[in-house]
Amino acid sequence: MALNNHPLARVVITGVGLTAPNANNLNDFREALLSQKSGLTEMEVRYMGKLAAGNCNFNEELYQKKKMRRRGTRAGSISIYCAHEALKNSGLSLDLLDKDRIGIYLGITEHGNVETENEIYELHQHNLDTGFWSHHHNPRTVANTPAGEVSLNLGITGPAYTIGAACAAGNIGIIHGMQMLQMGEVDLVLAGGVSECTGTFGIFAGFKSQGALGFHEDCTKACRPLDVNRNGIVVAEGGAIFVLERLADAEKRGAKIYGEIAGYHINSDAVDFVLPDTKRQIECMKAALAKAKITPEDVDIVNLHATGTKSGDENECEAVRAVFGASDNTYINCTKGFIGHAMGAAGALELAGNLPSFTDNKIHSCKIIENIDPECAMKNLVNGAPVEKEVSILLNNSFGMLGINSVLIVKKYIK
User: Which of 49, 66, 147, 149: CA 20 to 30 A from 281?
Assistant: First the structure.
């Protein structure tokens, strides 16, 4: 692959690998979103009983030996699966690539909770005998584990690390990968976001103590973004990893191009640990539009972060109305009603779910909103059947705790 150090090199997406609570590949995920298929089920959570959750159902041993899975983590197994699927989807063969020139950049919300909680639980089952503490604990819980497990599995010797950015991390993994390609640090990138959140009772308990854990007698309705009766977040796991290349390299090999990264921005609220700030979200979207050199009217889809919490949904909707309220061209959708909140994987999965709009010219709906919150009402909110429309530009919002905001804009590739 040709090295291109030009800072404005165009970067494109040429492969997608994912696992979500309702699908294990892009085609099935897209169909699930278009047909309103939920991936939410009930699961038994330690100390808390049965709760709604979004769990993935993929073959952990498809690309990983049983012994390595026992040594590794759930987040690592998700990452390995998605990375292999992305490479396969891209048509690339690792045997023909310089593995020193491949970068792995994965966004995460947290890591190590699952392993630490499980080992403390086992410790208490054995009268605090530390002899039962796993000698795999340290490598399992270091923050770079998801990307590191992919590196070990695929033999990739370029930079491999994770980026902790709360629930903005899926977008930020992709943004960072794009920047590394533009800087000429690598020639090929595996980037996205992953989450193993359903394995830890602490996250469920934390949201419950905040009064922000979603529930419903029908678990498929437990996550209800923008609905006036919504009551919180449904914890989910999953992952989406993208193959990124400089456009010149992708064109040279005749790659299928899913889309081109057109703009992005990252900023921070600096206001509160949890509560979002509408002003900073507005600034983030406007800065991303400016970098893409487009206007709000040019954007066909805005995918909301929309977690299903009262303040989160209302603040974001206010921000989106401020930026896109005058645009008749822009349609609004959201994804978490189908799969729950996959934390570090959320933004990457939501981007993946909308990418096929460039080819099928459909905009998937939100999970049906039965009673829209008046504070969340917006023009062109897709609710019910998909909207048929030619799509050229989509904007993906992902916001996280400690006030981190990320916006990623992807456009249809046109030669």
Answer: 147
